[in-house]
Amino acid sequence: MTNISDIAKHAGVSVSTVSRVLNNYKYVASDKREAVLRVIEELNYTPNKHAIDLIRGETRNIGVILPYNNNTAFDQLLNGILTKASENDYLITVLPSQYHKEREIAYLQKLKSRQFDGIIITSRANDWETIIPYSDFGPIISCEYTPHLEIGCSYTDRYASFVEALQLLKSRGHRAVAFTTARLTSNSTQQIILAYQEVFGEIPSGYHISDCQSLEDGYAAAKLFLQLQERPTAIYANGDEVGGGIYVYAKSQQIKVPDDLAIIGQENQPAGIGLGLSTVDHQLTKIGEQAFNLVIKKSKEKVKIPYCIVERNSV
Amino acid sequence: MTNISDIAKHAGVSVSTVSRVLNNYKYVASDKREAVLRVIEELNYTPNKHAIDLIRGETRNIGVILPYNNNTAFDQLLNGILTKASENDYLITVLPSQYHKEREIAYLQKLKSRQFDGIIITSRANDWETIIPYSDFGPIISCEYTPHLEIGCSYTDRYASFVEALQLLKSRGHRAVAFTTARLTSNSTQQIILAYQEVFGEIPSGYHISDCQSLEDGYAAAKLFLQLQERPTAIYANGDEVGGGIYVYAKSQQIKVPDDLAIIGQENQPAGIGLGLSTVDHQLTKIGEQAFNLVIKKSKEKVKIPYCIVERNSV
DNA sequence: CCTTGACTTGAAATCCATTTCATCCATTAG
DNA sequence: CTAATGGATGAAATGGATTTCAAGTCAAGG
Fold first, then answer.
1. β-pair partners for A66
2. What range defines the domain where residue B185 resides?
3. Do B215 and B251 fall into the same domain?
4. CATH no. for residue B20?
5. Cβ of A27 < 7 Å from strand C?
6. Residue A1 above 90 pLDDT?
7. What is the CB-side half-sphere exposure of residue A268 using CA atoms within 13 A?
8. Residue B162, SS3 per DSSP
């Protein structure tokens, strides 16, 4: 590969001058500038990014840790991040963790090795205590609320959204409300459990099914819910694909939505739109956009994004 | 930041020895190895990735050019790529182009600047003649068939799939078949036009609507199709979200699917599953996986992935 | 005519790790 | 006892840029 000193030789100048041309310095005689430009053209030269990164100590590349690469909710976050990254001339590297602690750490290590200028954590397996030390090596931004932590975040008030959605169901007369969640240990799951207890008191046995992600999971969950002695009259799903699965199962059993069964989904995803599923939109795209803004500002701010409830025909 | 020579000094050895320890060379006295390891631990040292990349000339990072970062089809491709990348200890950087020619070129330029070890093009705006010269600087793999080109690809036979799907509609008695596509200039659009002509002859005016991506686009397209004098009895949609939109519009007009209107979608996406939409699955995930395999093999092979038609209740 | 400041330019230091080469020591085989 | 071999180690070159520093030219101002 041709490098900067090849250019210098061919153009009859020093590497410093070539570098000046490359970086648009003023104070380069125009004849030399043109000579350099001509040689660059002739030899089809492009500066080596590694060398530049090494000396500059930055990459304009942000890593995004996300548990699954085929989950609509995380795609929404990612989309927001990508949009802002494009606007700001940054690149985004996706770091799928599958919630493996070691993998997550391996990715954070890459911040330390200067491979990324910053990292956005959309969801995590490790404790914050484990993660925080890595923020010495670059900004780490969370998409989950991080009170009392030296970590910036872009989040929505899930607890409040859950309370509001559950209140909505309650106000429509529902007393037997079941719900699905993703991982038991996730922040979001913790929040909805608290919100549920706040609104309806104890969770009846069988009214909470965790580890739901796909339409199929929703279908299976609905089957279980509707076999219960005390059949729920409403279900809060942790995503519109899961909600869609519940909807499809209900239809297959001639159960009328919303009359016999109300369903409310989450995140306003394509899978729900066609079905007319009501949904709690946590504005994941906006959360992603803000997360990106924070990471390049190396900010430790905590930015709250408003959620909104989209009513369609399933409640 | 502490670097390799700091480690060397503190451990009382040369940088070569530290490097040997770092890279697990044999032939390092065990006392020195331990001393080095101890100092690394103490000073919390991590090698600088830029320096390593510079000297090694590779990054284990693959760039993936995709037009939209919020399009389910491209997400499916990306998922396949990410899965294989994780398995092989590679990182994936997503490069959204919005089909801007200059952006696409800017990304290819990054291959030349050694920022990526290879690039996967899921879809493109530029001509191949413009793209091919960049393959001098690293492997470029296409997710579209590239006959006669020095570019490896992982693809499915879209022409055949379109013919088969249209034949299926024909065999069910449909003679008035409309269809939606994405960009007019895309390879896929070219193929379906040819396939349509093969199966049904000339395309009746108004029977082809392009630039469809979302459920909303499908909804709007359906409205137009169903206002035509010669109303189509079947619609082939270029994706299940578009198909879902068509479905929803049909329902809203009390048009029965599939009796009054058959709908067939594409790519077997979540949006279609709940609706029971029949679909042509081009196995985008598998195409992505193969594309990754090819890129790290620096292969120019052309790998064909079989498609399959998934019949549900909309045809 | 001298000083000052605006331009121009190149040598060399710097960023940080890998790798080649040369050297040295200690065995072991012949 | 010598030659060959296997281990162990460091100096220096290498990868490819940026940037500081010093020095030189030239024209304008006093």
1. A96
2. 158-281
3. yes
4. 1.10.260.40
5. yes
6. no
7. 15
8. helix
